Write a sequence for this structure.
């Protein structure tokens, strides 16, 4: 049986706090960079009617969690992933009841209202009369 030998190659790049090194001395990303916060945009989202049931404001900004088909992933500013929320600009307006339903019984939410990303354009259009900043 042949024995393999590991050869460490020098790495000349800079390492930041978001990276770790593996045996090849090349960076491995351990964390995704944080999304830029946009509290002004979220305030405008809160001031809208619920996009699913029409409840009057104030409402919750819901950061979209459903993954769109591959050809439509460009509609997100930051795709959601495991333990990653989407960008503030990828939030839709949901009342407390609809927001709770999404997080507690997503299957029921989907049967009643569809996928959350389907409401991105509705929310963006509702807040577009004011400057959005993205």
């Amino acid at each position: 049986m042949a024995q393999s030998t590991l050869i460490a190659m020098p790495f000349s790049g800079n390492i930041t706090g978001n990276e770790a090194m593996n045996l090849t001395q090349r960076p491995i990303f351990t964390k995704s960079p944080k999304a830029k916060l946009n509290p002004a945009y979220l305030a405008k989202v809160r001031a809208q009617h619920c996009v699913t049931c029409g409840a009057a404001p104030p409402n919750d900004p819901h950061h979209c969690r459903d993954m769109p088909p591959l050809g439509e992933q460009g509609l997100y500013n930051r795709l959601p992933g495991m333990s990653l929320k989407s960008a503030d600009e990828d939030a839709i307006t949901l009342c407390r009841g609809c927001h709770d339903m999404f997080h507690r019984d997503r299957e029921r939410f989907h049967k009643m209202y569809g996928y959350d990303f389907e409401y991105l354009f509705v929310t963006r259009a509702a807040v577009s009369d004011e400057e959005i900043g993205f």
